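> call design_seq(struct)
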């Protein structure tokens, strides 16, 4: 796999463009999705107020909108909004007085999210094509940033958290669900492009992730939820010889989904 950030992002765009065009949920029968979605990240979205099945491509790894305690009238920004799953939940909670902006760098995802918004007749949502490392919004414009299973895909996480800090109003907050690691993946797993696009290989060490957040100037940083994720046996078997797979199973390396909240 390339280590060039631009090439990594093109690979990510291609992977999510394929999913957006496939016309079904990620965990549907499409070939483009089968390998990615052997990993079970799902976290019980269906019970949330405002859930829209068409926008749920099975790509999230937590419930950031639940952790965010969204209030009516707020302006919310969802980073890496995909087909709009968290945007539509947030839009129900902020109501007509509020607004939710979804930002994604994959044109086909933005197109799919806009189609969903049109179908639902939502007027308090907007989907913007752009990159998290250079958010096309003014300083101090946002009450709350949410993001679901995205920042692991961003090569420059320092730039991402600096941008989140910049667009939040003073006292504004974020609630982010993401994948992090405890311990080092074997090189063959860390270099697997499918596992990068599948939100594992780009994940940072949890301690480094939390240190990046603190260094960006956030306070009251709390990991609200944390759970371990199992890699599917097929993904391990594809990358590792049986003896290496056994050593990995005994290594104590953990892949975790966390939901972290903090305040600017
Ligand atoms: C795993 S999907 C999650 C989608 C959505 N949050 C959900 O839960 O359904 C990751 C999304 O993040 C977008 N993405 C990845 N890196 C990005 C970046 N640097 N800037 C903007 N969007 C990005 C991808 O295009 C993709 O739609």
């Amino acid at each position: 796999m390339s280590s060039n950030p631009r090439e990594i992002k093109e690979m990510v765009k291609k992977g999510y463009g394929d999913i957006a065009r496939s016309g079904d949920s990620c965990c549907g029968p499409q070939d483009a999705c089968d390998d990615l979605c052997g990993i079970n990240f799902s976290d019980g979205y269906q019970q949330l107020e405002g859930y829209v099945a068409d926008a749920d491509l099975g790509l999230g790894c937590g419930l950031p909108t639940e952790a965010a305690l969204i209030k009516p009238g707020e302006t919310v920004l969802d980073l890496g909004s995909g087909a709009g799953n968290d945007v539509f939940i947030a839009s129900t909670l902020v109501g007509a007085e509020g607004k939710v902006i979804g930002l994604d760098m994959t044109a086909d995802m933005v197109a799919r999210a806009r189609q969903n918004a049109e179908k639902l007749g939502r007027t308090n949502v907007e989907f913007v094509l752009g990159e998290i490392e250079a958010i096309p919004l003014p300083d101090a414009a946002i009450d709350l940033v949410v993001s679901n299973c995205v920042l692991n895909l961003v090569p420059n996480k320092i730039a991402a958290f600096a941008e989140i800090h910049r667009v939040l109003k003073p006292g504004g907050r974020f609630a982010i669900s993401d994948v992090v690691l405890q311990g080092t993946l074997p090189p063959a797993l860390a270099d697997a492009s499918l596992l990068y696009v599948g939100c594992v290989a780009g994940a940072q060490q949890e301690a480094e992730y939390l240190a990046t957040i603190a260094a960006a100037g956030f306070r009251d940083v709390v990991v609200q939820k944390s759970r371990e994720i199992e890699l599917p046996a097929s993904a391990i078997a594809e990358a590792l010889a049986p003896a290496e797979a056994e050593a990995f199973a005994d290594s104590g390396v953990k892949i975790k989904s966390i939901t972290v909240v903090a305040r600017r």
